[in-house]
Write a structure and sequence with these properties.
- The chain has one domain.
- The protein is elongated, with a radius of gyration of 17 Å.
- With 149 residues, the protein is mainly α.
- 74% of the residues lie in helices and 0% in strands.
- This is DoxX family protein.
- Keywords: Membrane, Transmembrane, Transmembrane helix.
Length: 149
């Protein structure tokens, strides 16, 4: 593959690192003091209660709503772990699949909010591209450690 300036593997590493920075920004911009009280999940409860698909309402009601504080921590630290993992390229395929799943969950929950849809669709597309391009081949701990060769 011929490219300008960087190799193909390096361009995919740039894409992976950019996605990691995006996840890190998702974590950074949260007001942790209020988020960890469950306020972020409380907001999502309101969204889920009005959701057009009953399986989303029921799943959220059974799984998330009884554990708002725990879920707030899980969401925030999942975003942090995804960001750091993708930036340094550690367990990259796991991080890419985890990010894809999280984006799909956000996508399904926020089906009515087109601004959120664009962000989640782009992040999901980048995750798939970085996964199938094996973006851990350059500039990653995975490559340095010989993982996922």
């Amino acid at each position: 593959m011929q490219t300008i300036w960087l190799s193909g593997a390096e361009w995919f590493a740039v894409l992976r690192i950019g996605l990691g920075l995006w996840w890190l920004e998702s974590w950074r911009h949260k007001d942790k003091k209020t988020w960890f009280t469950g306020s972020g999940i409380d907001w999502a409860v309101g969204v889920a209660e009005k959701h057009r698909w009953s399986f989303v309402r029921q799943g959220f009601e059974r799984t998330v709503k009884p554990r708002t504080r725990l879920m707030a921590y899980i969401v925030a630290y999942a975003e942090l772990a995804l960001g750091l993992g993708l930036i340094v390229g550690f367990l990259t395929p796991v991080a890419l699949v985890g990010g894809l799943v999280l984006n799909l969950l956000y996508l399904v929950l926020m089906i009515h909010d087109w601004a959120e849809q664009g962000q989640n669709l782009m992040m999901a597309l980048i995750s798939l591209t970085a996964l199938f391009a094996m973006s851990w081949q350059a500039w990653s701990l995975d490559n340095a450690l010989g993982l996922f060769i």
